Amino acid sequence: MSRQTLAQFIDANRAELQQAILGALYRWDGNGGRGTIPAEPIELDPHSSAYLDDDALEQWIANDEGLYLWAKGEGVDVDGDEDPEQEDSEA
């Protein structure tokens, strides 16, 4: 399985990550009703207040079970506990 870094995973999946996180944040409308979640992944302007930078995305991936398992399933070392030298020797 091809390994990728967390930064590569974020770059490759930024729109979907933003969509999933904003969907979780805006699931409710604040008045007890269901909120509106856009159906398609959205591209946010990096200057928008809703934009999540790489540090925020890393925190979400580390702390949200679904995002964590998605990244792990794609071969990302989310925990940073795998030894890159050992991986090189296995190749």
Textual characterization of the structure:
The protein has helices at 6-25, 54-63, 65-73, 84-90. It has 91 residues and is mainly α. It is built from four helices and no strands. The protein has one domain.
Order of helices and strands: HHHH
Number of domains: 1
Count the helices. How many? 4
In the predicted model, the low-confidence regions spanning at least 5 consecutive residues are none
Major sheet details: none
Number of strands: 0
Mean pLDDT reading: 76
Q: What is the straight-line distance between the termini?
A: 11 Å
The geometry reads as globular
Tell me the helix content.
40-55%
**Beta fraction:** under 5%
Query: How does the helix and strand content classify structurally?
Result: mainly alpha
Q: What is Rg?
A: 16 Å
Features:
0% strand, single chain, mainly alpha, 91 residues, globular
How is this structure best summarized?
This protein has helices at 6-25, 54-63, 65-73, 84-90. It is mostly helical.
